[in-house]
């Protein structure tokens, strides 16, 4: 492995930029926004040094960024972009448009609080509010996972013809330095062949995209998007497995950490998983049978895999770093949906922990876990920190 | 009477979905024939999107991408860059957008594409309102014109798009009308041969939205130019102004009289519109004189 990978000290943002560089996108429209900007700056730096050969566009807004991404992708080019928070929300209408157009765009989103009031802290409400837009969604925990997952996302997006977002938490992941194994260009080229869609905007083909359709055509188109999402589950697994063969690193669609024989399992996404690991280790050391289930792929939601992973677990504790007013924690609700109707269902406890980027320590996670096990689960998510 | 043939095989096919007598379809027929087959079009929601046809049909002999209403210039930029990345530098990327998609909701990304000098040719098919949704006011609707959202007449003036685009110092910003076809075709050919951001705004009288006679589209097109209400001019690099139809041969009242949207207008309103047109005309003449003075200074 050592000859095909180089160890570098990188932030999550810079790991994303390295992955984007290695994926050789042909068109990269971007707009600056905290805390995503280091991705954009490192890519422009690569470009200025002649190490990154892509068409760069710097339009006046994220809305225009994504609007430029779609026809670039439909013309058969590989397309990458990055955003955060308000930028992702400004793209909202165009997010739907992109998946409808089956544009295989890959985007990194740095999860940041959504105004108002203004803030810059890690919170996943921005991307979770886009769950119905037809984008594949990954959530990552480390800088290494940022790099690996951006490359997985290209494989999956281009194979199933749906756009994909890789979500990384603001600062905890985006700005934390970690040693990252950066694969060689040759390794990545072997993993990610050039994008060559059969259907594309091309003078020779003459086909178009976006004209008005009938009800039946619209219905069929949505069915096909649903089928592509279902296919993305298999393709994502395969992309991860093959990456593991080439690099020695495999992350799974979800990861079971010390779940064997667990009386209670924490379920969460993103940077909170790192803290939860420490909490699980401490609780295991103290003789408590607890584990962590880290969800990496949120769309498509791996419902069967979640059911298998949590089979026989008496208590599930969901930690949400997001907030849907009037509903509670989004992952809490998704988990209840995924596990509804299983034989011997677990008690599902939902906690709004870390909303607004507040620090959630291993001790507070241990405290949340202990308090949950003593009580029947509340219907609503519970505020906890 | 002179018969004006298309310079090339048609790119807009018969059987399209435009209203009978539509000036937009006639304009685009000549624009696209001049652009030729190595062209890709971006068409936002608009009359033109309807004319282009519903799936699985297309009235255009070229690939079309339909973006969201507010995103034409951004989408065209993305398409342009993808073609460049693939080495297809000669393929022209054009936009065929209405005035709502240009003056209003698409204006932000239009300004940005102009500032970046993206290599696209943007056609604004200006029918002075949201005609596809049944004739509501846009910022291109002229002063006093009645629309569905200005039932007593619009209280403010039409936005001067060409002046704004010229202020971006883009290579080419022009107005054109199918009522003066040789001038229109010449401008399309000229813009096609240039590179960078180019925009041509075509006045497209709308039979239904303006309340014109069924055969009145071309007359209105010509009267708009002849009265100076829609002067034909071009601006190169933001500074060199040329007036292409430099004489006014009719009062504005001739032009207004063709249209139901001004029928409510009292004499004082007509006089006020005439004064506005006179003022705009004088400003254009001054800009042309300044361009000539600049040229003379450059030669000296």
| Rg calculated over all Cα atoms of chain A | 20 Å
How many strand elements of chain A?
15
- Please compute the radius of gyration of chain B using only Cα atoms: 18 Å
pLDDT < 50 runs, ≥5 residues of chain A: none
Strand content of chain A: 15-25%
Largest interface: A-B, 42 and 45 residues
Strand order of the largest sheet of chain B: 2-1-3-4-6-5-7-8
Can you walk through the features of this model?
The complex is a heterodimer of chains A (385) and B (300). By secondary structure, chain A is an alpha/beta fold. Chain A is 41% helix and 19% strand. In chain A, the strands form four sheets. In chain A, strands 9-11-10-13-14-15 form a six-stranded mixed sheet, sandwiched between helices. Chain A has a five-stranded mixed sheet with strand order 4-5-7-6-12, sandwiched between helices. In chain A, strands 1-8 form a two-stranded antiparallel sheet. In chain A, strand 6, helix 7 and strand 7 form a beta-alpha-beta unit. Chain A starts with a strand and ends with a strand. Chain A is globular. Chain B has 300 residues and is α/β, with parallel strands linked by helices. The relative contact order of chain B is 0.12. Chain B has an eight-stranded mixed sheet, with helices on both faces. The N and C termini of chain B lie far apart (44 Å). The interface between A and B is large, with 42 and 45 residues.
Give a short summary of the structure.
Chain A has 385 residues and is α/β, with parallel strands linked by helices.
Keywords:
heterodimer; A: 385 residues; alpha/beta; 5-stranded mixed sheet; B: 300 residues; 8-stranded mixed sheet; 40% helix; 13% strand
Give the topology, please.
The complex is a heterodimer of chains A (385) and B (300).
Chain A (H helix, E strand, L loop, with lengths): L4 E6 L1 H12 L3 E3 L7 H12 L6 E3 L4 H13 L5 E5 H6 L1 H9 L5 E6 L13 H4 L7 E5 L2 H18 L3 E6 L8 E6 L1 H7 L23 H33 L6 E4 L6 E5 L3 H14 L4 E6 L1 E3 L3 H7 L5 E6 L9 H10 L7 E6 L9 H13 L7 E2 L2
Chain B lengths: L22 H13 L3 E4 L4 H6 L11 E2 L6 H14 L6 E7 L1 H5 L2 H9 L5 E6 L34 H7 L4 E5 L4 H13 L4 E6 L3 H4 L6 H10 L6 E4 L3 E4 L8 H6 L9 H33 L1
Parallel strand pairs in B: 1-2, 1-3, 3-4, 4-6, 5-6
Antiparallel strand pairs in B: 5-7, 7-8
Helix pairs in contact in B: 1-7, 3-5
């Amino acid at each position: 492995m050592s000859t095909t990978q180089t160890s570098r000290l990188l932030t999550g943002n810079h790991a994303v930029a390295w992955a984007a560089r290695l994926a050789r996108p042909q068109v990269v429209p971007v707009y600056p926004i905290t805390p995503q900007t280091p991705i954009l700056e490192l890519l422009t730096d690569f470009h200025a040094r002649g190490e990154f050969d892509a068409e760069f566009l710097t339009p006046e807004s994220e809305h225009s960024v994504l609007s430029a991404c779609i026809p670039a992708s439909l013309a058969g080019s590989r397309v990458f972009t990055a955003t955060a928070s308000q930028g992702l929300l400004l793209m909202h209408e165009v997010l739907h448009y992109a998946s409808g157009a089956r544009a295989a765009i890959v985007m990194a989103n740095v999860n940041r609080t959504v105004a108002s009031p203004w803030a810059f802290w890690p919170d996943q409400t921005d991307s979770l509010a886009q769950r119905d837009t037809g984008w594949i969604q990954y959530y990552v925990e480390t800088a290494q996972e940022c790099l690996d997952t951006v490359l997985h996302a290209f494989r999956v997006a281009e194979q199933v013809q749906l756009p994909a977002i890789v979500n990384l938490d603001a600062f905890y992941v985006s700005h934390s330095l970690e040693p990252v194994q950066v694969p060689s260009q040759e390794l990545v080229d072997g993993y990610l062949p050039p994008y060559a869609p059969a259907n594309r905007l091309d003078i020779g083909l003459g086909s178009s995209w976006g004209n008005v359709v009938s009800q039946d055509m619209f219905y069929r188109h949505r069915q096909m998007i649903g089928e592509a999402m279902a296919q993305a589950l298999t393709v994502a697994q395969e992309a991860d497995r093959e990456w593991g063969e080439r690099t020695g690193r495999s992350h799974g669609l979800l990861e079971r950490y010390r779940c064997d024989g667990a009386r209670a399992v924490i379920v969460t996404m993103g940077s909170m998983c790192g803290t939860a690991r420490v909490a699980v280790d401490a609780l295991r050391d103290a003789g408590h049978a607890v584990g962590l289930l880290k969800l990496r792929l949120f769309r498509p939601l791996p419902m069967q895999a979640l059911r298998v992973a949590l089979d026989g677990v008496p208590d599930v504790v969901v930690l949400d770093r997001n907030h849907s007013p009037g509903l509670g924690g989004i992952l809490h609700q998704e988990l209840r949906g995924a596990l509804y109707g299983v034989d011997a269902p677990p008690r599902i406890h939902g906690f709004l922990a870390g909303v607004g980027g507040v620090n959630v320590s291993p001790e507070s996670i241990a405290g949340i876990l202990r308090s949950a096990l003593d009580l029947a689960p509340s219907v609503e998510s519970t505020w906890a920190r | 009477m002179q018969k004006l043939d298309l310079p090339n095989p048609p790119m807009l096919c018969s059987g399209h979905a435009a209203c009978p007598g539509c000036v937009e379809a006639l304009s685009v027929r000549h624009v696209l024939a001049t652009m030729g087959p190595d062209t890709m079009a971006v068409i936002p929601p608009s009359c033109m999107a309807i004319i282009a046809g519903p799936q699985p049909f297309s009235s255009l002999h070229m690939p079309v991408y339909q973006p969201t209403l507010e995103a034409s210039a951004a989408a065209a930029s993305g398409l342009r860059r993808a073609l460049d990345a693939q080495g297809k530098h000669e393929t022209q990327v054009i936009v065929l957008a209405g005035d709502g998609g240009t003056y209003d909701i698409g204006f932000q990304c239009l300004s940005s594409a102009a500032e970046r000098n993206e290599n696209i040719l943007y056609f604004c098919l200006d029918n002075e309102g949201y005609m596809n949704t049944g004739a509501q006011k846009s910022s291109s609707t002229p002063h006093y014109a009645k629309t569905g959202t200005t039932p007593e007449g619009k209280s403010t003036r039409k936005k001067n798009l060409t002046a704004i685009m010229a202020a971006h110092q883009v290579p080419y910003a022009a107005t054109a009308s199918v009522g003066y076809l040789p001038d229109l075709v010449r401008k399309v050919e000229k813009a096609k041969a240039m590179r960078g951001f180019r925009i041509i705004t075509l006045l497209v009288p709308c039979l239904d939205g303006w309340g014109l006679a069924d055969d009145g589209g071309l007359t209105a097109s010509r009267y708009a130019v002849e009265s100076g209400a829609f002067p034909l001019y071009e601006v190169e690099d933001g500074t060199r102004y040329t007036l292409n139809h430099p004489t006014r041969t009719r009062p504005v009242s001739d032009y207004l009289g063709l249209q139901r949207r001004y029928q409510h207008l009292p004499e004082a309103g007509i006089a006020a519109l005439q004064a506005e047109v006179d003022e705009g005309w004088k400003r254009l003449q001054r800009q042309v004189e300044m361009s000539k003075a600049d040229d003379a200074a450059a030669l000296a």
